Amino acid sequence: MSGRAEVTEKPVRADAPGRGRALARIAAGRRRWIVAAALLAVACSLPFQLVPFRVFQFTMVLVYAVALLGLNLLVGHAGQISLGHGAFFAVGAYGTAIMLDRWDVPHVLTLPAAAATAFALGLALGLPAMRLRGLYLALVTLAIAIFLVPLLKRFESVTGGSMGLTLGKPAPPAWTGLAEDQWLYFLALAVAVAAFLLARGLLHSRVGRALHAVRDNEAAAEVMGVRLSFYKTLAFAWSAMFAGAAGSVYTWVIGFVSPDSFAVTLSITLLAGIVVGGLGSFSGPLLGGLFVMFVPGISQDVNDAAPGVIFGLLIITVMYVAPTGLAGLAGRVARSTKKILRKE
Questions:
Q1: How far apart, in whole angstroms, are the C-alpha atoms of residue 5 and residue 137?
Q2: Which residue among 69, 79, 126, 278 has its CA within the 20 to 30 Å range from the CA of 285?
Q3: How many domains does one find in the chain?
Q4: 340 within domain boundaries
Q5: Angle CA(251)–CA(255)–CA(256) in degrees, nearest 5?
Q6: Residue pLDDT, tens place only, 264-315
């Protein structure tokens, strides 16, 4: 028997840190789903607690959130710029209006048709994105938003010209027992939930990873085998599709479309909304929808003579307080609260 003591070593589990990170991700995912379920429950109860005008306002928040979801996909996740997102919104709205007014298409069928039309237009517009970037790309998209209004006015026999088109709203089925404003709210909520789930699935797929690679470093992404032209074009098409779907629901809710409703200020307001809400965040479009819906009205109430000045000052204030948007501010507050609770 040897005089040397035998040393037995316990095997080190090399996968412990990786397993810990995996469990942390699972726990974080569960928390996000719990928060989402709670928000959905609150959203479902909302139209039964508010007066019809407030229900209408929150319906429009959902409409704008779907449009901003597409803009967030393009700007926040793909790193492209667009000052003409309102044009895609108008394509969906007018496409729905024409189908309802000229062809008596059922409301539910106008949504996929309008979204597909906007997708095709975004695919065509995405072609210049293969060669343009930065200010040059912004100028091209801005030009589309500028000439859209006179173009809609010119084809008066189809679009109704400056007078626009008045349309019927989808009536609630008798078995629901809902008022018209409540029914429209739930239609917008259903479209918004479907849009957010679709965007989530897209961003967690190979397409989403490719878009993030293009946003972070185009040269490195190309070296890794990412086809820049394909994914840039696809980003424009997906972004336009969400905006077209939002425009379709807008027509259902408002029951009227006119060219002046889709002026270039709409595109600028939508871009401001997603920046204020939080670029690249999943809650940014919803927070941006609240901003787009309520802040212009607040500006009008504060000063009837110069609401644009108040609106601009509010944007500057939000950007100063929350440089990463309201979603980033909420995250910082949550992290600070956790640190305080841990110290106690």
A1: 74
A2: 126
A3: 1
A4: no
A5: 85
A6: 999 999 999 999 999 988 889 999 999 999 988 888 777 776 677 878 888 8
